[in-house]
Write a structure and sequence with these properties.
The chain is α/β, with parallel strands linked by helices and 314 residues long. The chain has 14 helices and eleven strands. This is Probable nitronate monooxygenase.
Length: 314
Amino acid sequence: MIHTPICDLLGIEYPIFQGGMAWVADGKLAAAVSAGGGLGIIGAGNAPGSYVREQIQVVRSMTDKPFGVNVMLMSPFADEVAQVIAEEKVPVVTTGAGNPSKYMDQWKAAGCKVIPVVASVSMAKLMTRVGASAVIAEGGESGGHIGELATLPLVPQVCDATDLPVIAAGGIGDGRGVAAAFMLGAVGVQLGTRFLVCNECSIHPTYKEKVLKATDLGTITTGKRLGHPVRSLKTPFARNYAKAEYTQISDEELEAMGVGALRLAVQEGDVQRGTFLAGEIAGMVNREQPAAEIIREIFTEAEQVLQGATKWVR
């Protein structure tokens, strides 16, 4: 069985995190992943602190395993969510879309392990200096907001730049991807898209169907003009947004086009107005399964791949 330092640090069975996807990663999904041996993560997104507290209680009512909360630092509710996390003494905090330095002392005093998502070596170094417990190096193959670097070049550079445990994310959807991440120096992985189609994920059936029917070229990146590129499935909305970026539409109008679009996809399955966030591995996902089964299958395959990795060496 694959066991790495991140398992010991967090008290988890398998070195796998479930991405803190906004509007998707609720308490039910996080509990299922944690109960299955990984680290389930509640996605705070743009939700207020009251919602996050409610989802924390859902997790704790369903499992006694470690779990986390992801804080989207650009959220207008970031301060109150940070306070809720400290009050609830959440075991693990992951962060995205910004620098969590202002909250580090508060979280660490509450006993939280802080594991920021980083998309560059410079951010990894900064998080090391401010006392993070580990970092998640996320490449641009992932769904949602993405950085410039792909996973393959990003992960080893981050591993070289810090002594902290590194979790690889972006473009990982099966045991082969997990094995590759370990070869690059990571001690764990974070998966988002793969868990979109687990049984316990409560997204709209149309969203799941779109992921299951996606091909290798089924995603598109939009938002580069605004400086916040996002990867999603190719839908009428995504194509229209991509076209609008190259028109005379103002930045304010372009920004307004995306407001509420993720919620419309997750809750209503609206392909005309909704943005269906998903990573490039969507084309590899072909069936719905329980979260625990996904985790077991991935790591069984990863073990087999790692055991056979030297067969070409003479």
